Every structure is written in C-alpha cells, then in structure tokens.
Amino acid sequence: MEQSGSYEAHLTAVFEQYCRPGMTVVDVGANIGYYALLASRLVGPSGRVVAIEPNSENCRLLLTSLAAQGAENVELLAVACSTEVGWAYFSSHVGSNGDSSPTTIWCDGRAPSCRCSPSTRW
After folding, report:
1. With contact defined as beta carbons under 8 Å apart, do 42 and 69 qualify?
2. Distances from the Cα of 55 to the Cαs of 11, 17, 70, 122, in angstroms?
3. At a CB cut-off of 8 Å and minimum separation 6, what does 112 contact?
4. What is the pTM of this model?
5. How many CB atoms sit inside 10 A of residue 104's CB?
6. Residue 112 burial by CB count (10 A; 0-12/13-18/19+): exposed, middle or buried?
7. Which regions of the chain carry the CATH code 3.40.50.150?
8. pLDDT band per the 50, 70, 90 thresholds, residue 56
9. Where are the alpha helices (DSSP H) in 1-122?
10. DSSP letter assigned to residue 70
C-alpha cells in the first residue's frame, strides 16, 4: 500500500535504489516529469537526466515543474522515439492528462484529435 504523499511507491523505490550521483538517466515517455524530477534529485548536479516526451502539453507541464524545482540537470527532448526519423501521428486517450479523445493511438494525422510530433531514431 502506498503511503500518503507518495506516487507509485514500488517504482520510486527502484529509482531510489539504483540512481546514484553522477549517473545519466534516460526517461523515455517522461509524461509530466515525475520520474525525471526524481532522477534529477537522485543523480545530483554532477548527473544528467534526458527526458523524452512527444506530447506538447506534457512538455509544458514538465518544463514548468523543472523551473519550479530549479532542476538544471534535465534535458527535455520533445520528440517521439521510433525506428524511423520523420513524423509520428498519435491521439491521446482517456487517462492521458484527462483528454477524452478517441482511443486510437496512431492515426493518419487528419483527424482533429491527432497530434503530430517529430520522431527520432533511438
């Protein structure tokens, strides 16, 4: 059972066990940045966090949190990871920041609920 004020305590414990000062942590699908901020604190100023998140609203929220926390060791890459370099078209779904768009994950980019993000080979 999670304690009050903790988020996904079992995963937070893994980060706390393995992230050490000076390490580099890559957070793929950083969402709004909970784990990026946690890793930032754990790796300290000599460490580095690379947060990868294609959703522009999530990026805005993540950047706001980074500024509020003074986290200067986090680099945000606003891209989708893919096997191809180009553009990724996706649609949010219920539970993804409260968006109630259709549940289609990939779409052709013409639907109003679709978002387009640059993709990079990772």
Report:
1. no
2. 23, 29, 22, 17
3. none
4. 0.74
5. 15
6. exposed
7. 1-78
8. confident
9. 9-18, 34-43, 56-69
10. T
What is the number of other CB atoms lying within 10 angstroms of the CB of residue 95? 9
- Cα–Cα distance for residue pair 62/98, rounded to 1 Å: 16
For residues 57 and 21, give the distance between their C-alpha atoms in angstroms, rounded to a whole number.
30
| CATH number assigned to the domain covering 1-78 | 3.40.50.150
Amino acid type, 41: R
pLDDT at 60 over 70: yes
Instruction: Determine how many CB atoms are found less than 10 A away from the CB of residue 39.
Output: 28
Query: Biggest alpha carbon distance in the chain?
Result: 45
Q: What distance in Å separates the CA atoms of residue 107 and residue 90, rounded to the nearest whole number?
A: 6
Closest CA to 119 of 77, 63, 76: 77
The pLDDT of 67-72, averaged and rounded, is 95
Closest to 32 (Cα-Cα) out of 53, 1, 11 = 53
pLDDT at residue 101 above 70? no
Q: At what angle do helices 56-69 and 34-43 cross, to 10 degrees?
A: 30
